[in-house]
TrEMBL record, chain A:
Residues 6-118 form the Response regulatory domain. InterPro entries: Bact_response_regulator, CheY-like_superfamily, Sig_transdc_resp-reg_receiver. Pfam families: Response_reg. The lineage of its organism: Bacteria, Pseudomonadati, Pseudomonadota, Alphaproteobacteria, Hyphomicrobiales. This is Response regulator. The modification 4-aspartylphosphate is found at residue 56. It comes from Mesorhizobium qingshengii. The keyword Transcription applies. The keyword Transcription applies. Keywords: Phosphoprotein, Transcription, Transcription regulation.
Length: 148, 343
């Protein structure tokens, strides 16, 4: 049994955050916080310990998700996965994030992504196949999914 | 016409005809003995004058359009031709210069250049406007696309949350089927607009996502899939009905085809084949399950949905007994579209 993940949710849509929280917990992980703006997210990054942060690009204070990812990247205390309906907004270097789960994802897609991330964080590289709708950043692609 | 004598100092005029006097407005005595430069003025092009000077120095002929001044100060465009005249021994005797007033031609040339500049400016201006409009449209499209995707995500979330609160198994099952259908739409939208050409949809990539997702979601690892997918591009408006149809057929196979066999196993194989023989787009969804001999009529919702979508797509659809199992064959017209030209 691999140790479960502690997850931080940075998402401005309450409905999506609620559902994401349920799915994360059903999969055996825990949610350590939910932030809706970049300021809230940064404060939470400072005060909590998370393994993974799911970060939407568009938050209540604008397209500040990349900013949040960079902040987390400097702190180096958790890994970032973008979760957005607008993957084109993500810079080429992904601000250090693992990758992106494109919205709309399917429930199964998200469950698979959680398993994949659990393996990737606890026992890298992940054994499961990359789930549909999940795109790795170039940096993580070379480590987690090297072309054989 | 003018003749000058280069053997005298400063190459003076030694002969003028009446036509030149009429053109320039001078009297004969005023010009004889003078160098031709009195015809030039402030607006005369220096480079043209240099060109003349050079030709005279090198004793070769030259032809230029030059702006000259009359005695009264008015200007005219002079098509000037100068040629050296030598004797038998090759000694330079004279320069012969002929003049022609081409002010009219110059004027129309100027007008044409001005018109051309004006047109070019107008075209540039219009291009800028169109580019700005396109930019605005693209931003709007992205905005709407973003909202559609978010809303689809919210619809799925609502269904899942609702279904968590429901005890009745049949109701939950029906919500699960609804979620599958909405997620098929979600998978279309996730894939839509991924290429720059928003009107084209790569149906093979979509099918791979959909089938993998349905199979893993079913949790039935004993059921394998065989995907034989040509890269096929269809127009975006066909994407949704095609996606829904494939979703119905694959979920049907998953739900109905693989009953427990006498040996207690439920293993099986689902196959999807997509091809585009000339001008057509063909889809085959097959399974090696129980077949449809026992299927009850066609009053059920899934079947009606499949048939209506087929009508919308002008597709022929046929259920074949594949012994064992079922093979559903769909064929629809599809204008040939090269994958890869999605720029
Ligand atoms: N691949 C298949 N193999 C065996 N039986 C099938 C297959 N596809 C369809 N059937 C039969 O055809 C019937 C009608 O299918 P249909 O999709 O209309 O309804 P359904 O799947 O039972 O419910 P829903 O309306 O939610 O789709 C099914 O109940 C099943 O008996
Ligand atoms: Mg059905």
């Amino acid at each position: 049994m691999i140790e479960p993940l502690k997850v931080l949710i940075v998402e401005d849509e309450a409905l999506l955050a609620m559902e994401l929280e349920s799915l994360v917990e059903e999969a055996g992980h825990s949610v350590v916080g939910w932030a809706t703006s970049s300021a809230e997210a940064k404060a939470m990054v400072d005060s909590t310990e998370a393994d993974i942060a799911f970060v939407d690009i568009h938050l209540t204070d604008g397209p500040t998700g990349v900013d949040v990812a960079e902040y987390i990247g400097e702190k180096k205390n958790s890994m970032v996965v973008f979760m957005t309906a607008n993957p084109k907004r993500i810079p080429d270097h992904f601000a250090g994030a693992i990758g992106v789960i494109a919205k709309p994802y399917t429930m199964n897609g998200l469950i698979c992504a959680l398993r994949y991330l659990q393996e990737g964080v606890r026992r890298p590289p992940p054994k499961s196949v990359l789930p549909a709708g999940f795109t790795l950043s170039p940096a993580f692609e070379t480590v987690w999914a090297p072309v054989p | 016409m003018i003749i000058t004598d280069p053997r005298q100092p400063d190459n003076p005029i030694v002969f003028v005809n009446d036509a030149f006097l009429r053109l320039s407005g001078y009297e004969r005595q005023e010009v004889l003995g003078k160098n031709c430069r009195f015809l030039q003025g402030p607006k005369t092009d220096k480079a043209t004058v240099d060109q003349l000077r050079e030709a005279i120095a090198e004793k070769v002929d030259v032809s230029v359009d030059i702006l000259n001044y009359r005695k009264d100060g008015s200007t005219f465009w002079n098509a000037l031709y100068i040629s050296p005249v030598s004797n038998d021994r090759g000694e330079l005797l004279f320069f012969f210069a002929s003049q022609l007033d081409v002010s009219d031609r110059k004027r129309s040339e100027h007008r044409i250049t001005a018109d051309k500049d004006r047109f070019e400016k107008a075209v540039k201006e219009r291009t800028r406007e169109l580019e700005a409009a396109l930019e605005a449209q693209t931003t709007l499209l992205h905005e709407v696309d973003h909202r559609v995707k978010n809303n689809l995500q919210m619809i799925s979330s609502l269904i899942v949350m609702q279904s968590r609160t429901i005890k009745d198994a049949a109701t939950r099952k029906s919500l699960a089927t609804m979620l599958e259908r909405i997620e098929a739409l979600s998978t279309v939208h996730r894939r839509l607009y991924q290429s720059k050409d928003v009107s084209r949809f790569d149906v093979a990539d979509f099918a791979r996502d959909l089938v993998t997702d349905l199979l893993t979601a079913s949790g039935r690892s004993e059921i394998k899939s065989t995907l034989d997918l040509e890269p096929i591009v269809i127009s975006a408006e066909k994407a949704t009905p095609v996606a829904l149809m494939v979703n119905e057929l694959v979920t049907n196979a998953l739900k109905h085809a693989f009953k427990e066999k006498p040996d207690g196993t439920t293993a099986g194989r689902i196959g999807i084949k997509m091809s585009q023989p000339d001008g057509h787009f063909n889809i085959e969804v097959s399974d090696d399950g129980v077949g449809m001999a026992d299927a009850s009529g066609d009053a059920s919702f899934g079947m009606r949905l499949i048939k209506s979508l087929a009508r919308q797509l002008h597709a022929d659809i046929e259920w074949r007994d594949a012994g064992p199992g079922t093979k559903v064959v769909i064929s629809m017209p599809n204008e040939p579209q090269q994958k890869g030209n999605v720029s």
